[in-house]
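Bit of a strange request maybe. I'm writing a small parser for structure token strings and I need a real example to test against, not something I typed by hand. Could someone generate the tokens for this chain?
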Amino acid sequence: MAGAGWSRRLGQAGAAALLLAALAPLLAVFVLPWLFPADASWPRGTPSMLAATMLLAGGASVLALVWGTAAAWLVEMCSFPGRRAFGLLLFLPFALPPYLHAYVWGDLADAAAVGGVRGMPGACLLMSLALYPYVYMFARASFARQSSSLQAASRLLGCTPWGAFFKVALPMARPALGIGVLLVFMEAANDIAVAQDFGLGTLGYRVYDLWLNRGDGGGAALLASLLAVIGIALFGLEYFMRRRQRQYESSLRHFGGASVYRLRGGRALLACGGCAALALLGFAVPALALAAKALAASAWRPERLAAALADTLLLALLAGGASFAIGMALLWLRRRSRLAAVRVACILPAGGYALPGVVYGMGCLLLAGALADGLFGLTGYSAHWLLHSSVSVLVLALACRYLVIPGGALERGLDAVSPRMDQVGRCAGKSRLAMAWQVWLPLLRPSLLAGGLLLAADIIKELPLTLLLRPLGTDPLAPLLYQYASDEDLGLAAPPALLLVLLTLTLLCLAYPMLMAESRRRFAA
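Reply from user aminoacidic:
Good idea to test on real output. This should exercise your parser:
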């Protein structure tokens, strides 16, 4: 018993240490303004930057809500030719990050001499085409869980299919749609590459410009703190809506699946045309244009591409593994602790996803510098080479910023583990390790695999954080293509961009059937 108590205390101490490591970058962001001279002032034009950020994120969110909700309703609730294929095709824009949309569509518009693309309306449209799958996936899962009895009752009361959609299905899907819209809003507000390419003075890009290009650390810190407050507020709202969505799902488990409307003739043709247009504009056209640009490139530089691919895969493996390890430790600590403050603290690190990558990176850099200075003051040993010239800071930053993905995957998987299984295992004389290996792991495997694939895809696409923290001598795919595109050399940017798209596309195609199977299984339960 003494040995068990010692191991439990040791595990709690290790989990607490990981909690402090995960919270440190988040806390560092909020103390940024106090680390710079007192005469630091707000940059000129801050209200206009805030307005541009809200306009870009709000416009992209509204358009993504329209595209994602309409596509989810058609694929999940209607029957028409090509429905199954469109279910996957409408998910594929996840493989193209927004900055690739901006580069490709901007280049196509320049080649066709079409004006008006490089502006706020064009940026909102392109961001919505890249990010609507957030709304699409949440809306589709919500529609799949809705009751066929309610749909049938609405039809008996005289509702047309459109009336049933607006009066029954849409209000019931409101929590899920809210989560998707908030994720789109956060992603759009965090952007720097689209804002730079389209000449938009958003807060995220101005933080990056002031910090790296103009050397105004104080102004960048003030803008970063403003973005951090907005991000944390959005994360709190998103977390609240997730809890409402979970309660809503549990209340519908005794219902059957939703009924399907059969579309024929012109309606079926219109549904096919709408889904095809969204898939073409969101994925097929930019992907094919990127492939054509890559094939026409005169200099592929295969050695640099191979090195960038190796760096990207290693980074995704290390950061993904670290993120799942930290997420598992925090989930265990949250469930074992009796203190409400500890349970809340275990949730807060997931809020790093709501912060712009450049803001989160600033906190990590200053934190690493403070640790190195403190270690040097205590021991006389300089650790700057370890904290600034290695991949350790970048791996930890990526792992902590994307904790929301492994945390969500573990939560969904543990929902399938009944407490009675633990009681049965204890009655059978099984140890906790044996129960974890023989019962929990098989039940958690689908959620862990799907979450791991999505996490790897997000890490591969991450630009601001990787651009800011990558060690010298390493060039992952996202910073490499950003460097070429910033120099307006799309011929050299196309090969790494195409490689990045193929890599993320493979991961998403592997994750999609797992996500759909998990959604159906959770509904059937």
